[in-house]
Amino acid sequence: MNILGLDLGDRRIGVAISFDDLVSSLDTIVYFNREEAIKDILEICRSQEIGKIVIGMPIGNEQSEDVVRSFANELNKIAGVPIDYEDETLTSKEAERILKDKKLNYKSEKYKQEIDRISAKIILEQYLNRGLN
Fold first, then answer.
1. What is the pLDDT of residues 54-106, one digit of tens each?
2. Might you report a single GO cellular component term (predicted)?
């Protein structure tokens, strides 16, 4: 089963996908409203035959958790794909460590998109490593 991993942000969504336990990053989704983001995710779900979505959950931040759950509920209603959550604690810090030697300007949009992509990949890998799929 193909699984989609998402790292939700205010303006960007990091995206990763697993094919038979091989995880790779996809392009970051840059969006201006929730409907636009969901439309882009639905297109990925259809084109990649996604059977499950894993969304990073900001554990310990109740307001952010509510935002993620609201987004996930709306996505689930439209896509009809089961959704699980994975603790995203420190995934951005790990992504920054990975990018440390890449010589990217940490203020640039390219750098921020790379952080989101890598974070989504880490979220999905953590989920798969726990054997919950």
1. 999 999 888 899 999 999 999 999 999 999 999 999 888 898 888 887 777 77
2. cytosol
In angstroms, the CA 47 to CA 94 distance is 29
Q: What is the dihedral of CA 19, 25, 30, 36, to 10 degrees?
A: 0
Q: What is the largest CA-CA distance in the chain?
A: 41
Burial class (CB in 10 A: 0-12, 13-18, 19+), 22: exposed
The CATH architecture that domain 2-129 belongs to is: 2-Layer Sandwich (3.30)
- Cβ–Cβ under 8 Å, residues 3 and 52: yes
